[in-house]
Amino acid sequence: MTSPLAPTPTGRLRGRPGISLVLCDLDGTLLDPESMVSSRTLSTIDALRRRGVHFGTASGRDLRSLEALFDLWGLTGLVDVAVGMNGADVADLRTGQVERDYLVRPEVFRDIMAVYADLPVNFAVVVDGTYVAAHDDGLLDALAESGRVRTAVDPGLVATLDQPRTKLHVMCHAGDMARVERRAQLTDATRATGVRTADTLFEFQYPGINKAVGMRRAAAMLGLEAGRVMAFGDAENDVEMLHEAAVGVAMGNARPAVRQVADRGTATNADDGVAVFLMDWFGLD
Which 3 state secondary structure label does DSSP give 211? Predict the structure, then answer.
């Protein structure tokens, strides 16, 4: 069996590939601008699964906080597999099997924080489903509101970075994102790699880990071929996943880098883009 960490050797399937798994990013993709899932999208997912196609989510969010949010979004019972932390964590929600890997040493994240010391940013690390921030400010409040996540404060993350962690979040104002991206080039990519995941969020984690890795791990966990996955996304942390998927679909609100690698496009997340595409591709009612 091919290792979940190795790209599928056959690459993309030619023609109109048979799809066994549909994997969707959450924020900006499956979720609407109010961070909810529409009834149209929920009914489409249900119809898809009744056709025998598995459905999963692939997010930068952590698996623990997603447990409660799936209930809020009406997704409980509709998601077969969940990829969290941009591919570092994977859970088979049918069996409860969970794989959490690829931790980064504390000193690596501390060095990254030092690189940003003079910029108006905040930092956060997820601990047991709670986003623990370096200080309390409007950036943290915005994350809590838009992401519907629990937050806490550990000044300077001194106590939190007492052991290896999966990911370091850099929060900023949208107008500062260009500076945050440029500053990332000063960090050591052999120790941790960074990617923009939203207009106000940049994330660092284990080198080489991305949603394409999570996609392979999810397919392997379900006993499916990695080359029969359809993936939807909108942000830079979806690029590898859409590029490697048998069918990569960019949302109408997707970033240019995502549109460039996608096979197809669909409507925005405000217009049920995921449901629109699935209904057409699979001929769902």
Answer: helix
Q: Which listed residue (25, 89, 176, 234) is catalytic?
A: 25
Supply 87's token pair: 């591919």
pLDDT tens, position by position, 214-237: 999 999 999 999 899 999 999 999
- Strand partners of residue 125: 132
Q: Are strands 229-233 and 201-205 parallel, antiparallel or unpaired?
A: unpaired
Whether the model pTM is above 0.85: yes
Mapped onto helix, strand or coil, the DSSP state of residue 242 is: helix
Residue 150 backbone phi and psi in degrees, to 5 = -80, 145
CA dihedral 123, 28, 220, 18 (to 10 degrees): -160
What is the C-alpha separation between 254 and 194, in angstroms, rounded?
Answer: 19
Tens of pLDDT, residues 172-188: 999 999 999 999 999 99
- Going by the DSSP 8-state scheme, the letter that residue 31 receives in this structure is S
Closest by CA position to 274, among listed 12, 7, 43, 13: 43
Answer whether 68's CB lies under 8 Å from 148's CB.
Answer: no
In order of start, what are the domains of the chain with their CATH numbers?
21-101+209-282 (3.40.50.1000), 106-205 (3.30.1240.10)
CA proximity to 244, closest of 202, 214, 280, 223: 214
Distance CA 46, CA 49 (A): 5
Check residue 226 and give its pLDDT: 87
**Mean pLDDT over all residues of the chain?**
94
71 is catalytic: no
Determine the Cα–Cα distance for residues 242 and 113; give it in Å rounded to an integer: 30
From the centroid of its chain, how far is CA 198?
11
Residue 205 tokens read as 């984690």
Q: DSSP assignment, residue 29?
A: I
CB 234 within 8 A of CB 28: yes
